[in-house]
UniProtKB/TrEMBL annotation:
Its cofactor is Mg(2+); Mn(2+). The keyword Transcription regulation does not apply. It comes from Marinobacter antarcticus. Pfam families: ApbE (PF02424). GO terms for molecular function: metal ion binding; transferase activity. Its EC number is 2.7.1.180. It catalyses: L-threonyl-[protein] + FAD = FMN-L-threonyl-[protein] + AMP + H(+). This is FAD:protein FMN transferase. The keyword Membrane does not apply.
Length: 311
């Protein structure tokens, strides 16, 4: 095992240092970020290049976490959420994310909304049977709604009391960003796979021409995977409620909330996994499908993508 050294500026949250394992030309790098285990798999790469690639991946992921997490005091998201109705000018990368959030909101007919994070004040998905009162969720709905804010690039004006939260798209964006950086930095003929908590993308098949083998978690068996998939290109992303739910009178309430009602989507699958050219797109489609509830499979069939649904 090789420990990768990074500076405090690269890792201000003091995550454990990245660890590199492997040998010859096959390597596995691991680190923590975005409340997820993160790993990169490298094929056809020497040790020196593998160490540099892992350090690069960790630095970029931690940068994105610092910038887009709602938990980091003083970062751009925090400044927006504390702006009290004043216009905030954002940089190009933040503008890109806000444009994407607009697109997601419009395409989902309001089901995907990055202002809906305030609903967590009423919901605690801890496996118990405790449901919030309707008046509590109804009160929070007054602070939810993409159409309530003003986004005129590069200025965002957020009404006082409202918040934005990139939790639904940030991790998938990070996977794509890190893979892009690896493509540009690794030697020609090598291959890489980036996996952040089960959302993943690869640069192509392994150097021997074989596919990467990845597992899809069975919600009935959280200790392991019951199905493996072969991935030669593109990405996979999963949305589900295996670990975050409430159970009351035999009814399961998953953590996927409909921002139009403030309550969990009825008849939503336990999980949806989607294959797409990029992790960002795969994640968007998986989340959209969860938000469709009983219509998840029909929605995905209309998109013409490969998918796996567990109910």
């Amino acid at each position: 095992m090789i420990t990768i050294t990074v500076s405090d500026n690269d890792n201000p949250a003091k995550h454990p240092l990245p660890q590199l394992n492997g040998g010859q030309l096959a390597w596995q790098g691991r680190f923590e970020a975005m409340a997820s285990p993160c790993e990169i798999l490298l094929d056809g790469v020497n040790q020196k290049d593998a160490k540099q690639a892992l350090a690069l991946a960790a630095r970029e992921t931690w940068r994105l976490e610092r910038k887009f997490s709602r938990y980091v005091s003083g970062n751009p998201v925090d400044r927006i959420n504390r702006s009290k109705g004043e216009a905030v000018t954002v940089d190009d990368e933040m503008a890109l994310m806000l444009d994407y959030a607009t697109q997601c909101h419009d395409l989902s007919e309001g089901r995907f909304d990055i202002t809906s994070g305030v609903l967590r004040q009423a919901w605690r998905f801890d496996g118990s049977d405790h449901l919030p009162e309707r008046e509590d969720t109804d009160a929070l709905l007054k602070l939810v709604g993409w159409n309530r804010l003003s986004w005129q690039r590069p200025q965002l004006t957020l009404p006082e009391g409202m918040e934005i939260d990139f939790g639904g798209i940030g991790k998938e964006y990070a996977v794509d960003r890190v893979l892009l950086n690896l493509r540009q930095s690794l030697p020609e003929g090598s291959s890489a796979l980036v996996n952040f908590g089960g959302d993943l993308a690869c640069s192509g098949p392994r150097t021997n021409g074989k596919a990467w083998i990845v597992g899809v978690e069975d919600h009935r068996k959280l200790s392991g995977s019951n199905e493996t998939l072969s991935l030669r290109s593109g990405a996979l992303a999963t949305s589900g409620d295996s670990r975050r739910y409430l159970l009351r009178n035999g009814v399961r309430y998953g953590h996927i909330l409909d921002p139009r009602t403030g309550w969990p989507v009825p008849d939503a699958p336990h999980s949806v996994t989607v294959a797409a050219p990029t992790c960002t797109l795969a994640g968007m489609l998986a989340t959209f499908a969860m938000l469709q509830g009983i219509g998840a499979e029909h929605f995905l069939e209309q998109q013409g993508v490969q998918f796996w649904v567990q109910r």
